[in-house]
């Protein structure tokens, strides 16, 4: 037997309703915020992620699925989607769109990392991107999109953490302050942080090693090193969130794991799914489009993993509706009855009705058991007796009541789209 690759997971028909429910909520929330869907390729040229995500990140250094295609080109399965959206914005001429350009996506991503609960090598992301505005209202709106989404799903007990990591100008000063602080502690820190000290000391604050976390607690705060523009921007973001009555806390240790972030960064954190409880993260990335070869374009957005979200819904005991049950089940006996039922079922399905028929030559008794298992509301019996009398028997499976209806009348109502069994 060929097994599924490590770090991947099937979504079976038993569980697919959960995914469909989440995706329906995504579409509903996107509609209320005037977000339009964008779809980008599952794989891109490797350079896109080297330039967009950053060659100092763990994603680029350790986790990317990269290979040479038959044309000897370096191709990478996308580890995230924002860089692909940036590439599409430039290549597709989206800069000529009405601004701000508000987009959302749902798609699969790939990272070669140790599989664990809610973190797979193939996973699925929902995210939004707003291009073309520097206004702090966009930062606040992105955060409220995520908040609205979680509330619509019935998720509670989330903490919203926000921070500003400044712009390239004020970050230079902050990098110097970090290096001055971390240098005496380097021998007590992990190997990765030692490497980050030279390449990107800001990323040391994102380390999950316990020794480094303890040292980081006393590190200087980025908020004390913001330039006037970044400081004022962050103050306005906070004021808009306050105006929307969204509770948040300021966490100067949030830096996010991707190099393209500037100014606002944020996370939605849950205490219900273990120590690493971040279920949504994002921020502003005003330099991304320019880094990818386009004209400087302000942008802000977020991403969240759907697998991790489903874990959160389960931990919060959110009841996900399983969708509509079968409305009409045709219990048949004999070839003539089967042909009749097949014709009726086809007509009703074309009208949007949920209908099932027997495909397994079960007995009448077994068909009724099956109808009960699939929660069919009504069973229409068609056998030799019904065909001879030209009267169909209809059973209400909720209260076990039965009624008769002449075959000619049933047929007329069925094909004219007027059949009502209530």
Jot down its keywords.
422 residues, alpha+beta, BirA Bifunctional Protein, domain 2, Rossmann fold, eight-stranded mixed β-sheet, five-stranded mixed β-sheet, elongated
What would you note in describing this structure?
With 422 residues, this protein is of the alpha+beta class. Among the domains are: 16-157 and 261-315, Bira Bifunctional Protein, Domain 2 (BirA Bifunctional Protein, domain 2, 2-Layer Sandwich), CATH 3.30.930.10; 328-415, Anticodon-binding domain (Rossmann fold). 38% of the residues lie in helices and 21% in strands. The strands form 3 sheets. An 8-stranded mixed beta sheet has the order 1-5-6-11-10-9-7-8. It has a 5-stranded mixed beta sheet with strand order 13-12-14-15-16, with helices on both faces. Strand 9 (262-270) and strand 10 (278-284) form a beta hairpin. Helix 1 (16-32) runs antiparallel to helix 5. The longest helix is centred in the middle third of the chain and has 18 residues, at 136-153. The chain starts with 15 loop residues before the first helix and ends in a 7-residue tail after the last helix.
Can you give me a brief rundown of this structure?
The protein is an alpha+beta fold and 422 residues long. The protein has helices at residues 16-32, 46-52, 58-63, 82-91, 136-153, 168-182, 191-199, 210-216, 228-243, 288-291, 306-315, 335-350, 364-373, 384-389, 407-415; strands at 36-37, 43-45, 65-68, 74-77, 101-110, 122-131, 158-164, 249-250, 262-270, 278-284, 299-305, 328-332, 355-357, 378-382, 391-396, 402-406. Among the domains are: 16-157 and 261-315, Bira Bifunctional Protein, Domain 2 (BirA Bifunctional Protein, domain 2), CATH 3.30.930; 328-415, Anticodon-binding domain (Rossmann fold), CATH 3.40.50.
């Amino acid at each position: 037997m060929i097994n599924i690759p490590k770090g991947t997971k099937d979504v079976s028909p038993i569980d697919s309703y959960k995914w469909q429910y989440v995706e329906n909520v995504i579409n509903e929330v996107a509609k209320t915020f005037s977000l339009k869907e964008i779809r980008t390729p599952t794989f891109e040229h490797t350079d896109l992620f080297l330039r967009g995500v950053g060659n100092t990140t763990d994603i680029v250094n350790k986790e990317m699925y990269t290979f040479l295609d038959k044309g000897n080109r370096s191709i990478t399965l996308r580890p995230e989607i924002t860089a692909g959206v940036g590439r599409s914005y430039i290549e597709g001429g989206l800069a000529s769109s009405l601004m701000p350009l508000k987009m959302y996506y749902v798609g699969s991503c790939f990272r070669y990392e140790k599989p664990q609960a809610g973190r797979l090598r193939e996973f699925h992301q929902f995210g939004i991107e707003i291009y073309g505005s520097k206004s702090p209202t966009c930062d606040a709106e992105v955060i409220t999109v995520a908040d609205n989404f979680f509330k619509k799903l019935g998720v509670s007990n989330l903490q919203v953490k926000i921070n500003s990591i400044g712009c390239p100008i004020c970050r230079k000063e902050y990098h110097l302050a970090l290096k001055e602080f971390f240098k005496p502690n380097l021998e007590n820190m992990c190997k990765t942080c030692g490497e980050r000290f030279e390449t990107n000391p800001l990323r040391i604050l994102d380390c999950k090693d316990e020794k480094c976390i303890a040292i980081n607690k006393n590190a200087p705060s980025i908020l004390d090193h913001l330039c006037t523009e970044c400081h004022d921007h962050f103050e306005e973001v906070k004021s808009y969130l306050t105006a929307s009555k969204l509770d948040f806390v300021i966490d100067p240790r949030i830096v996010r794991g991707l190099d393209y972030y500037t100014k606002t960064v944020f996370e939605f954190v849950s205490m219900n799914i273990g120590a690493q409880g971040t279920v949504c993260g994002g921020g502003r990335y005003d330099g991304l489009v320019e880094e990818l070869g386009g004209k400087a374009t302000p942008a802000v957005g977020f991403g969240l993993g759907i697998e991790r979200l489903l874990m959160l819904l389960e931990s919060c005991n959110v009841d996900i509706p399983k969708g509509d049950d079968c409305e009409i089940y045709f219990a048949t006996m004999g070839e003539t009855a089967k042909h009749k039922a097949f014709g009726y079922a086809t007509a009703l399905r074309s009208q949007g009705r949920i209908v099932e028929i027997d495909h397994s030559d079960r007995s009448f008794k077994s068909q009724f058991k099956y109808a009960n298992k699939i929660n069919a509301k009504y069973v229409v019996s068609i056998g030799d007796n019904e065909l001879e009398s030209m009267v169909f028997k209809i059973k209400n499976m909720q209260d076990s009541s039965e009624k008769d209806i002449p075959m000619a009348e049933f047929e007329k109502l069925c094909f004219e789209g007027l059949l009502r069994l209530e």
